[in-house]
Specification:
The protein is mainly alpha-helical. The protein has helices spanning 2-15, 20-31, 54-84; strands at 44-46, 49-51. Strands 1-2 form a two-stranded antiparallel sheet.
């Protein structure tokens, strides 16, 4: 059952990676804000490596959200330049 839920959340995060509202909704559900302790996920796969250290997981989420703006800006610039050329 846990593997099924885990797979579901991984797919939701991947599917909603460009929709911040849906991503945060998924993360809030994942983090079980209404519970004191969430047993759903103790481990994430990051860059193909299974990670269970909460600080490493938090840092990776932070890296993702901190860089999303510049990544989107760079992809827009590339599209505009390719349309001009």
């Amino acid at each position: 059952m846990k593997n099924c839920e885990r797979y579901c959340y991984e797919n939701l995060l991947y599917t909603h990676q460009n929709d911040m509202k849906k991503t945060w909704k998924t993360l809030n559900n994942l983090l079980c804000h209404k519970k004191k302790y969430c047993e759903l996920f103790c481990e994430f796969t990051i860059d193909g490596i299974k990670v269970s250290n909460k600080k490493v997981i938090a840092d990776k989420f932070n890296d993702y959200f901190v860089s999303i703006g510049s990544n989107l800006a760079n992809s827009i610039i590339v599209r505009v330049i390719s349309m001009i050329i």
